[in-house]
Specification:
The chain is an alpha/beta fold. Helix content is 40%, strand content 21%. The protein is built from eleven helices and ten strands. It has a five-stranded mixed β-sheet with strand order 1-3-4-5-2. A five-stranded mixed β-sheet has the order 8-7-6-9-10, with helices on both faces. Strand 4 and strand 5 form a beta hairpin. 20% of the residues are buried.
Length: 291
């Protein structure tokens, strides 16, 4: 058995859905461990590095965690660089902070503003423990942990800013969504083009880490020009589509009494076309703009 005192260069972690009740057997029996890894690789290849196809060998264990007293298996890929990966169980939080099932309940309550001292009173530890646990969630890539397969990165996106407050100052959370998933949420100091470009740039960076040449086909935004310019800067080839609701509201606001009959007719017609998706619009966009 070999023990790694410190992670070496190229050291990575693969987090797998291993059962807590079977984890000791996973550690003690090489055949069980290899069979479980092979099974999960066949089921969820997106969780593993692409080089996994070249094969691997078991490569000892990590040092025992001082927090939970757990070790993790390691594997070494059969590649030229012989990279080593840690196989971490999903029932444990990153950095061995605690068991996922126990910490999930406490962190869930933070959604409703339960103070850290309240979490300490109910779940133990201390206030800084829960503060660090919450803050550490921001270390991970939202896009990278949501989309593992590069081919599943959505080509049609929606972007908008949610207004909020931080220490008495107005801030803007630049939200990016696609395929019914939240793919990005970064804080911008202002609604200027520069700050919004930085905020949406976090999504762009994370998406390109999944797929280097990624570029969305369309992005649906409201009429705020800095938002549209930010997306055109980050993805020069993207088609910016004005949000149907905002376009409709602008028409409504300008519909005077003399145009009321026309507006009512437009309102009825919009119901038939409101579900037209960006995917169905693509042929028309290509006819106008070309490839």
């Amino acid at each position: 058995m070999s023990i790694t005192e410190k992670p070496t260069k190229g050291y990575h972690t693969i987090r797998l859905p291993l059962e807590q009740t079977e984890y000791e057997l996973f550690l003690s029996d090489k055949d069980v461990a290899k069979a479980q890894i092979d099974k999960l690789y066949s089921q969820y290849p997106e969780l593993f590095p692409e080089e996994m196809m070249h094969g691997y060998v078991l490569n000892g264990f990590t040092q025992e965690s001082s927090k939970l007293g757990l070790r993790c298996r390691r594997i070494q890929l059969k590649t030229a660089d012989k990279r080593v990966f840690t196989i971490a169980p999903s029932f444990v939080m990153p950095y061995m902070r605690g068991l996922t099932a126990e910490m999930e309940k406490a962190l869930f309550l933070r959604r409703f503003g339960v103070p850290f001292w309240g979490l300490t009173y109910v779940f133990g530890h201390n206030d800084m423990f829960w503060y660090r646990a919450e803050a550490s969630l921001g270390n991970f890539s939202v896009t990278g942990t949501t989309v593992k397969d590069p081919q599943k990165l959505p080509q049609d996106l929606l972007a908008d800013e949610k207004h909020t407050w931080l220490n008495g100052n107005r801030r803007y959370i630049a939200m990016t969504v696609g395929a019914d998933c939240i793919l990005g949420a970064s804080v911008a100091k202002s609604a200027s083009q520069l700050d919004l470009t930085k905020a949406y740039g976090v999504f762009a960076q994370e998406a390109k880490a999944v797929k280097l040449d990624y570029s969305p086909f369309t992005v649906n935004t409201d009429g705020w020009l800095p938002t549209q310019k930010a997306w055109l800067y980050l993805f020069p080839g993207v088609f910016v589509i004005l949000c149907f609701l905002h376009a409709f509201l602008k028409i409504r606001d300008r519909a005077t009494k003399g145009l009321k009959e026309w507006f009512n007719g437009l309102s009825q017609s919009s119901r038939r076309y409101g579900r037209l998706t960006a995917h169905r619009l693509r042929p028309h966009l290509h006819n106008v703009y070309g490839d």
